[in-house]
Amino acid sequence: MLTHIAFYEKNIERVLELFPQLKEWEQSRFRQALAKAIETTHPQMAIALYKQLATQAIEQKNRSAYREAVQHLQRIKAVCESCNTQSDWTGITQLRSQYPTLRALHDELSKAKL
Is-contact 35 75, C-beta < 8 A? Predict the structure, then answer.
């Protein structure tokens, strides 16, 4: 509840303080909105949250989830480019080798030019 209030009040520092204390299902509800809110102020944390979102989507193993994962990966790429941290992006490009049998994922990555 406090996290909801802090997020509504745009008190990002307080949200970041409370976020680890949330249960996993509560964190999953906030993860995407929090990542978007902290892209400019805390890019490394935003990248970590987007990676978690992408991994969760990939683990669902269906094409619509792969599309969702690609959207998160595109946000990671944008954040990396805005703060000039290509090292995080090179780790993401290894997804093809990490999931060699998921052809639909490879297809979605190719469509998005990732």
Answer: yes
Give the number of C-alpha atoms closer than 13 A to the C-alpha of residue 26, restricted to the C-beta side. 11
Quote the pTM value.
0.86
In tens, the pLDDT along 23-56 reads 888 888 889 989 999 999 999 999 999 999 999 9
Phi, psi of 35 (to 5 degrees): -60, -45
74 and 35 Cβ atoms separated by less than 8 Å: no
| Cα distance between residue 52 and residue 95, in whole Å | 13
Tokens of 35: 């990542």
Its sign, for the CA torsion 81, 82, 84, 88, is negative
14: helix, strand or coil: helix
Q: Are 60 and 20 in contact (CB under 8 A)?
A: no
Provide the residue ranges of all domains of the chain, joining segments of one domain with +.
24-111
Angle at 77 between CA 76 and CA 80, to 5 degrees: 85
How far apart CA 42 and CA 97 sit, in angstroms, is: 29
